Sequence to fold (542 residues):
Amino acid sequence: MIETIQTTPFEGQKPGTSGLRKKTRVFMQPHYLECFVQALFDAIGGAAGKVFVIGGDGRFYNDTAVQIILRMAAAQGAKSAIVGQGGLLSTPAASHLIRLNKTDGGIILSASHNPGGIDEDFGIKFNTPNGGPAPETVTEAMFAATKTISHYKTLKTPDIDLGTIGSTQLAEMSVQIVDPVADYAALMESLFDFPAMRARFADGFTMRFDAMNAVTGPYARDILETRLGAAKGSVTHGTPLPDFGGMHPDPNPTWAHELMAEMMGGAAPDFGAASDGDGDRNMVVGRGVYVSPSDSLAVLAANAHLAPGYSAGLKGIARSMPTSAAADRVAQAMGVEHFETPTGWKFFGNLLDAGRCTICGEESFGTGSDHVREKDGLWAVLLWLNILAVRGQSVAEILTEHWARYGRNYYSRHDFEAIETARADAMMSALRVKLPTLPGTEFAGMTIRAADDFAYTDPVDGSVSKNQGVRIIFTDDSRIVYRLSGTGTEGATLRVYLERYLPGPGDLHLDPQAALAPIITAAHALAGIDQYTGRTRPNVIT
Ligand code: G1P
Ligand code: ZN
Fold:
């Protein structure tokens, strides 16, 4: 039976870099999720007759939210829903299912790499029929609808069983509960040289994949251990838990410290990797060597042709603006286009759809290709494994050869988390005011060539996105970028991105923090980070 529930708008239901993210308890307030879901359906012209993919990363409230959304979709007259068993779907697997089944989009429940649990974070985002995150026009329409909402429609029905694969019915809507892994694993088999990778594992190649108690556990076990023959136990923390077992499922050296310790220790396996809450991010580590995400993007792009799915070469390479320019050098050498987009995967969608680029990536541990419209953690791990299997070299050897050929873009990101929003805003405003006066001035012995606030004109649809981050570029192409995070749920997070290019052949193995020291000094002085934020040091360095 369809029910219409009267309600009033909630403040602040504005989707950020990647959907609406709030503390879990905020989402648990009566009508809160419902209001956003109704606004979402209204913003896309209703749900009647449509087919949606629904699933999430298994964090606390995932299952309840799936039931709420299913009831609401049915009440709006949706035709059917494809749901991962247990309500689970990694973000890239959801993107694939949206495309594979030619659906009208999908609703993904996740706060990505943020911790989960009743006192941690929850999130929801909508992906469009191309499988990618909704563009700003759509998320703005959702936000607008949240401000005027007066009622929502749902069903008065008990929960359905999400645990059994097969079809069931919710009023007039059919619900298909599917294996969350099978179609995704088949896609991976179509892209990569599984026999070559299997042979390498059979030959004694060892790896560790830390799933951080999040959604990729079942995917990694099936693909790495069962299909590729990696030793049992290669996947650790492989069972998705509602609170991620207390882990912070953010694959970076700070949060994936268990993996880092193992990879830097005496008994390290050949290859290490980790993924985040919803499976779209990845960190790659070789024995004794950390691979920065910007370098990983460049190495993957330079070697992708070694995988069957990319043997025809790349159409182009795209990176987000704060990501290092290492990938640009690869594109230039290949003679293909390269693109610099604002932060957030949604900006890659048009380029991928238009066939202008094949591989894209962000410095924030995100890499992916045109196989889906999200970044894809396991995809990156498998492409690395494919490259390692074909080249027969170690991660360290591959990196060294890469830098020797292209030079090295030393790179680091310094995050200042949970600072007071007003102070962070004041710092950014003061910096923006100063921009026109900066070119020609000197900081820490370096001269500024250009300073601006990054704006992007989408080459496909001409849409313009402004205020995407303050860039300070020095005469030797070294660079500082300042941005405030759009995904945090507490106060503000200042991200400072630091880059310095050294052409080689010398100086290719410096410690990045040491190589970047003058730029770090300049970054603090220029923006007055210490005075504004009260912090002299970042709390996360990647
Ligand atoms: C962060 C990353 C960004 C990524 C996004 C979603 O956004 O920096 O690259 O696309 O998460 O995973 P931010 O918090 O910086 O807005
Ligand atoms: Zn994520």
In short: The domain at 408-541 is CATH 3.30.310.50 (TATA-Binding Protein). The chain has three domains: 2-178, 184-406, 408-541. The first strand starts at residue 2 and ends at 6. The chain has a mean pLDDT of 96.
